[in-house]
Amino acid sequence: MRIWLLILSLLVTACDNTPTASEPVLRVAQVMGAEPDPGFARALEPRVFTFPRDHGAHPEYAIEWWYLTGNLQTDSGRRFGYQFTLFRVGLRPGEPDSDSAWRTRQVYMGHLAISDADEARHHSAERFARAAAGLAGSQIVPFSVWLGPWSLQADRAFDSLKVEAGTDVIGLQLQLQASASPRVLQGDRGLSRKSAAPGNASYYYSLTRLPTRGELRIGEARYTVKGDSWMDREWSSSALDRDQVGWDWFALQLDDGRDLMYYQLRDAKGAADPFSRGSLVGPGDQVQALLPGQVTLTPLRHWLADDGSRYPVSWRLQVTEPELDLTVDALFDDQRMDHSVRYWEGAVEVSGSHTGRGYLELSGYATSKYRNPGETHER
Predict the structure, then answer these.
(1) In degrees rounded to 5, what are phi and psi of residue 237?
(2) Which pLDDT belongs to residue 18?
(3) What Cα–Cα distance (Å) separates residue 206 from each residue in 143, 182, 184, 192?
(4) Which of 302, 324, 331, 335 fits a 20 to 30 Å CA distance from 8?
(5) What are phi and psi of 11, to 5 degrees?
């Protein structure tokens, strides 16, 4: 059975709620490495990006996401990290018959998380909806993508972004200054190849430093916060090759004004893949590609989750030309997203030759196959 059918059963059953009983946790390699329906488009060569069109959805591809992370703090210095992600999953290519407002071939999934550094506590939630009857979807002008009450919106010029999302436990209301960040086309003019196989690639661009302010809510407590966010946009129909199991992704905002992104793809033995890639955004919005020969990643410390999975939550990241020798440490260890797809996503502190803050994503480390998910998972 194709992985898209598994996603179909998981997401459509969930409808506008989350799964409720002993459903399989999808491995990242399953979702990103599945053989797509041949009717979906593939990322085969560089394309001309067109805005605002490419801020919106690309239903001709099987999967895409709008991915926001950030480090925020109050005036008193209390620190938080946050993640807000909306995923679109194409279940079948093409448009469905239009005999019903409920008929759709698109499903949306959302992840929301707040990391409270002072309490060393990670709060997260997951949500699903069909892209039908107004439950979820996207539009181009003015830009908006939504999943029930969770939404990412922009003004007509895409100068300002607004995030609104929440549950009974946590919530976000944030304003992001999109005009302050360069639009970085990752990889080869926005084509991010993940292996030598044709089509194992995505179209990928980033807004690497978005001044952010607004309000966080945890329980009944509300915090006025400010800081910086990072936005990634990707769409694809298949990315990982058969022998690739996951990646380690770094999005770092250095205090000297430079922004560094690097993802290390891993095979089943844990070795780095030669298609690992990154970029360094410097003064004047100059973008330098980072290749595996320039970057050395060394895990320094692991966190052991209660299911036996080990996550490398502290790293030494070295770059040549220019010379960087960074230590990247989790603000606290347990920042795992424990939902339909299980992965570690958390706020980090940067020290060493340069200082800064950022986010780290660790995928493909989960070992257990089943869990009992609920809408909100906390530790």
Answers:
(1) -120, -15
(2) 40
(3) 16, 8, 5, 12
(4) 335
(5) -80, -45
Cα–Cα dist 204/65, whole Å: 10
- Quick count: other Cβ atoms within 10 Å of Cβ 8? 17
**Three-state secondary-structure class, residue 4:** helix
Nearest to 203 by CA among 160, 230, 236: 236
What's the domain range around 115? Answer: 3-378
Please report which confidence band the pLDDT of residue 35 belongs to, taking 50, 70 and 90 as the band edges: low
- CA dist., res. 208 & res. 228, Å (int): 9
Strand partners, 132: none
Q: Which of 319, 348, 323, 354 is nearest to 333 (CA)?
A: 348
- 3-class SS of residue 305: coil
| C-alpha torsion 281→283→286→290, nearest 10 | -40
- Say how far residue 361 (Cα) sits from the centre of its chain: 8
The CATH number of whichever domain residue 97 belongs to comes to: 2.40.370.10
Q: Mapping DSSP to helix (H, G, I), strand (E, B) and coil, where does residue 276 land?
A: coil
- Total domains in the chain come to 1
- Are the C-beta atoms of 104 and 88 separated by less than 8 Å? no
Query: Which two tokens mark 74?
Result: 């109050």
Say how far apart CA 264 and CA 276 lie, in whole Å: 5
Q: How far apart are CA 2 and CA 72, in angstroms?
A: 40
Q: What is the pLDDT of residue 11?
A: 46
Tokens at 173, concatenated: 């209301």
Q: Which residue has the tokens 């300002």?
A: 160
Kindly state the tokens that stand for 193. 């190849």
Structure tokens at 137: 């979807």
Distance CA 235, CA 42 (A): 10
pLDDT tens across 299-328, in order?
A: 999 999 999 999 999 999 999 989 999 999
Which helix or strand (DSSP H or E) is residue 304 part of? strand 295-304
Burial 271-290 (b: 16+ CB within 10 A, else e): ebbebbbbbbbbeeeebeeb
Residue 277 parent element (H or E): strand 277-281
CA distance 71 to 359: 8
Burial code (b: 16+ CB inside 10 Å, e: under 16) for 242-269 equals: eebbbbbbbbbbbeeebbbbbbbbbeee
